[in-house]
Design a protein that fits this description.
By secondary structure, the chain is mainly α. It folds into two domains: 233 residues, Rossmann fold; 78 residues, Tyrosyl-Transfer RNA Synthetase (Orthogonal Bundle). Helices cover 49% and strands 7% of the residues. Helix 8 links the parallel strand 4 and strand 5. Helix 3 packs across helix 12, helix 4 packs across helix 13 and helix 9 packs antiparallel against helix 12. The chain binds adenosine-5'-triphosphate and magnesium ion.
């Protein structure tokens, strides 16, 4: 690959007429139903109308799993299989590895200078993760740095929208702050400028918005935390039908009898709302459950498990040709990295121009 970043702020490639989106996932495990409803379903919907970049945040996985490099590699490949299973089409969307796009690391370093240290440490998602993942006082320096890195992941692609779950909104807010600050101090955009006007006024970055999916925060089967790869409370996209059934059976509601009025705001009913497609059936289940009309958790769970298996079956079908075929996945990643580097190098050249860091053009090749 030979992208041709330019020393002036000219796009290296013809800009697509489609708006651009970027989002991604960390290979701390494989993808689950939370990813589907929070972000991936939206990505699939946007694939034909947007220029799409989907990043495997493999460097960020080292923040909590540095001693498990082989697992990070395995999960990076598995996540691509999950993407393909869920309907992401690598011809339409670039799927790429964070570690193979050096501009992201370079932008992280520069953006770290634009964010006050205390601002990063106040990020509520970071604070939650430290607590929920039991990171205590011993987390790496790289752990809070990942929040800065995520601003670079996003801005390297100058996207207008970022399809994410609710927990990522604070990261997006920080990203918007970095973009505004960069545009103000290096591009002369007024601090009073409206977000929508930044590019028009000469700013390098658009101010991207969070595009939160239909269910911004799907609860895990423990009924306590959000469904998460790292917390042992997830139903995975690759789970076989029996495993799905077993896990749904474990969703905790605390209800004791069929005739006691049930709480339709419990975790089980979040699954009813999210996955049972017939609105009339959803309304009927809610009505009977709320009245304690002989409708047990077991029955509702069976309907949820059936609905989930109906959703997952075509995904299992789509995954099959890629099972055990790592070479096909590596090819998809190589192609995605070429496409991602083209845009990220272009952004880096624009950033260097604006920040007076541009001395001569550079070329990047990927064999
Ligand atoms: P980890 O436990 O390692 O943090 P995770 O399960 O939270 O993993 P991420 O890779 O951090 O997954 O998140 C990838 C994307 O999926 C983000 O946009 C995030 O908001 C979204 N997401 C993750 N879990 C959920 C969930 N339970 N509900 C809705 N969206 C989710
Ligand atoms: Mg997470």
């Amino acid at each position: 690959m030979t992208p041709s970043p330019q020393s002036k702020s000219q796009p290296a490639s013809l800009p697509s007429s489609k708006p651009r989106i970027l989002t991604g996932d960390t290979p701390t495990g494989t993808l689950h139903l939370g990813h589907w409803v929070g972000s991936v379903k939206r990505r699939v919907e946007l694939q034909t109308t947007h220029e799409c970049y989907f990043l495997i945040a493999n460097m960020h996985a080292f923040t909590t799993r540095a001693e498990h490099a082989a697992d990070i590699r395995r999960d990076s490949i598995e996540i691509v299989r999950d993407y393909l299973a869920m309907g992401i089409d690598p011809k339409l969307s670039a799927i790429f590895l964070q570690s193979e796009v050096p501009a992201i690391a370079e932008l992280t370093f520069l953006f770290a200078m634009l964010l006050p240290f205390n601002r990063v440490m106040r990020n509520p998602t970071l604070k939650d993760e430290i607590k929920i993942k039991n990171l205590g006082e011993t987390y790496s320096f790289g752990f809070p740095l990942y929040a800065v890195g995520q601003t670079a992941d996003i801005l390297a692609f100058r996207p207008t929208g970022v399809p994410v779950g609710e927990d990522q909104v604070p990261h997006l807010e920080m990203t918007r702050e970095v973009a505004r600050r960069f545009n103000q101090i290096f591009c002369g955009v007024s601090e009073h400028a409206e977000d929508a006007d930044h590019e028009k006024l000469g700013g390098t970055f658009p101010i991207p918005h969070a595009d939160v999916g239909a269910v911004g925060r799907l609860m895990g089967i423990d009924g306590v935390n959000k469904m998460s790869k790292s917390l042992g409370n997830a139903i995975f996209i690759a789970d076989p039908p029996k495993e799905v059934q077993k896990k749904v059976g474990k969703i905790f509601t605390g209800r004791k009898t069929l005739t006691e009025p049930g709480d339709i705001n419990n975790s089980l009913f979040q699954y009813v709302d999210a996955f049972i497609l017939d609105p009339a059936r959803v309304a009927e289940l809610k009505d009977r459950y709320a009245r304690g009309d002989n409708l047990g958790d077991g029955h509702v769970k069976q309907e949820v498990a059936d609905a989930l298996n109906q959703l997952l079956e075509p995904m299992r079908e789509r995954r099959r040709p890629y099972e055990g075929n790592d070479d096909a996945i590596i090819d998809i990643l190589r192609d995605g990295c070429v496409r991602a580097n083209r845009v990220a190098e272009e952004t880096l050249a624009m950033v260097k121009d604006a920040a007076k860091l541009s001395y001569f053009p550079r070329r990047l090749t990927l064999g």
